[in-house]
Design brief:
Number of domains: 1
CATH topology: Spore Coat Polysaccharide Biosynthesis Protein SpsA, Chain A
Helix content: 25-40%
Structural class: alpha/beta
CATH superfamily: Spore Coat Polysaccharide Biosynthesis Protein SpsA, Chain A
Shape: globular
Distance between the termini: 21 Å
Oligomer: single chain
Largest sheet: 6 strands, mixed
Strand order of the largest sheet: 4-1-5-9-6-10
Number of helices: 6
CATH architecture: Alpha-Beta Complex
Length: 235
């Protein structure tokens, strides 16, 4: 069985009610639920939450909420891995063992079905423990600068000051959309970043962290622009 698990706790502090806050006309979690359902990849789409309010919204948009996450797994320091392990354990205990799981974040309005499908294909063809979305840095991290205690600027890696940018390795960061997992292996290793992880590389215009009100406003403006251009596709 393939299952999508969408973590969505109720205790967001920097953006209150973040996981169901309206985003371009509907609760932000609805985009992740809609993309998972429209992809046709999943036997079940489950939202893991500690909040009855979030659960009700999730059901409205077609997700299942077969359990409420316990308080000890709903704090500020609860990891994504712990949430996924809890959901997989619940499914095991209820007679529905999972072969592949996809952790899909609730605040990922740019997620698209074609990339979900690409991630599953890579997981199955490579035999990797995990596959997740990344995107490139807009400038080389090897040219990064730091400020010294006396206020001076200095290169973090001064040995690359004169190296041509074409000769510097391309680097990526986690795009924070989804993580495909080989479920049996994940239960054993309990690591989302497996040692043989593979990437789904996204264009930078489909990536925006949403951790602050400023991030939210930026993401919403990006989304509206992409929708006007016809770039966003949740099918």
């Amino acid at each position: 069985m393939k299952v999508a698990i969408i973590p969505a706790r109720g205790g967001s502090k920097r953006i209150p009610g973040k996981n169901i806050k309206p985003f371009s006309g509907k609760p932000i979690i609805a985009y992740s639920i809609g993309a998972a359902l429209a992809s046709g990849l999943f036997d079940r789409v489950i939202v893991s939450t500690d909040s009855e309010g979030i659960a009700a919204v999730a059901r409205t948009y077609g997700a299942e909420t077969p359990f409420l996450r316990p308080p000890e797994l709903s704090g500020d320091f609860t990891t994504t891995a712990e949430v996924i392990l809890h959901a997989l354990g619940w499914l095991d205990n209820h007679g529905t063992p999972v072969a592949c799981a996809c952790c899909l974040y609730a605040t990922a309005p740019f997620v698209q079905g074609k990339f979900l499908r690409q991630g599953l294909e890579i997981l199955e063809e490579s035999g990797a423990g995990s596959v997740f979305t990344v995107t490139t840095y807009p400038a080389s991290i090897y040219r990064a600068l730091k400020q010294e205690s006396d206020g001076r600027l200095a290169m973090v890696w001064p040995q690359y000051e004169l190296t041509s940018s074409n000769d510097l390795p391309e680097t990526f960061h986690d795009a924070g959309q989804f993580y495909w997992l080989d479920a049996p292996r994940f239960r054993k290793e309990q690591r989302i970043y497996s040692t043989d992880a593979r990437p789904v590389v996204l264009p930078r215009f489909l990536v925006q962290d949403i951790d602050t009100p400023e991030d939210w406003a930026t993401a919403e403006a990006m989304y509206e622009a992409l929708r006007t251009l016809g770039t966003i596709d949740h099918g």
